[in-house]
């Protein structure tokens, strides 16, 4: 059926009533929550813990082709490390594995390895969900301190539907996409951005639902898990190892619930909270972004960067000036998206990368938009495209109401001066999309699982880990948490210590001491 505005409004109203989303406090996760352990606690293990199966080498592989240099060029990653090999491939997945919707989808994959990586080593599958393309996450990881893992086994990233190099989704016209990117700052109804973005959400939802029908309900985490399962079957193996970062944790939990017997290792890096409403998840992200910005500012000062003695204050003023329209067509929302893309970039956070970004911001402050322009466009393509919109909204089970967003626009704008106001308005981006049911958690899953995180994570925040370990332990899985004391996302892309913990776990499924800390 075609979605009409009247039908969509009725559907949205019904969803808001049945989910009980009002203007009150955000709902908290209806799962067990594990409280953080202190560093140095005994390793998590149990005498009755079943022996984990072993990941297997593919018997029938994909048709890989070298894409090292093109990938590094596309992502502006510079020169590939010596001996690094990136290979790209596609494979066919069903739109709906249950057969409810016919047709196939082209899913993209990337394999990273060194020329010295053993060819008979079982690969580690990577998903970063809808935060950014999994292939981009892998390329960024491979550009940094990837030795502990890639020297022992290849990593294979699988792009989510419509993201990265998977079959594209182009469902938004420029008359909707650009105002959403700018949160209607330059629109006639700019005086009420919450209502303006809510209206744009209705237009975007109608457009994308029409574009995707009859498969518009197949872009959630559960179907993304089916795509990973199809890769396992194509490889003709019984067991795989899986690494999920950020919103990819939803896919990992869906895979554990549906196909847990086929998991030999599971690593969850910097997950968002389980079954938390949109307000709660956004607040966690904003806290992480503000913490990461503070850490960036401290490092910027230590490098003598061009933002001066107080980079945080300088950036706050830039966002405020963008909101006042002082930078032409560059909106406050687009600038904040660029900041989030930089802070959550999986590429190595080298000193030159820090100072170059600071220089672009300093130039903007002088009225020169030239240096920041390519970064704004890159951020939009990476974390704010049509595929990200569809997948992100498909995973939203408890959207916010306009009244709640209006309230938080002021509250968060004061509490979180750089990211808060934009985050509150952004709650409306998925407000018209039909809300999904709360994600079902694994009921029985006994595989020892490693959970990573960063002290200052701008993509997921730091408060989701206890809800994920709680859900896993409730299903019977022993867990251990390793926290990197730095800033960025995901931890495994930036910390050699975190990578070594992952590499050790992949070898024998033994967990490190719960509460292990990795230095910044």
Notable features of this structure?
alpha/beta, 19 helices, 10-stranded mixed sheet, Rossmann fold, 2 domains, single chain, 520 residues
Helicity level, as a percent range? 40-55%
DSSP strand tally: 10
| The CATH architecture of the largest domain | 3-Layer(aba) Sandwich
- As for the CATH topology of the largest domain, it is Rossmann fold
Count of discrete structural domains: 2
User: Superfamily at the CATH H level of the largest domain?
Assistant: Alpha/Beta hydrolase fold, catalytic domain
What Rg is obtained from the alpha carbons, in whole angstroms? 22 Å
Number of helices: 19
Could you tell me how far the N terminus lies from the C terminus, measured between alpha carbons in angstroms?
Answer: 52 Å
Largest sheet: 10 strands, mixed
- Biggest sheet, spatial arrangement of strands: 1-2-3-5-4-6-7-8-9-10
Report mean pLDDT, rounded to a whole number: 92
What is the level 1 CATH name of the largest domain?
Alpha Beta
Describe this structure in words.
- The structure is a single chain.
- By secondary structure, this protein is α/β, with parallel strands linked by helices.
- It folds into 2 domains: 235 residues, Rossmann fold; 147 residues, no CATH class.
- 43% of the residues lie in helices and 12% in strands.
- It has a 10-stranded mixed β-sheet, sandwiched between helices.
- Helix 11 crosses helix 13.
- The longest helix has 25 residues.
- It is globular, with a radius of gyration of 22 Å.
- The termini are far apart.
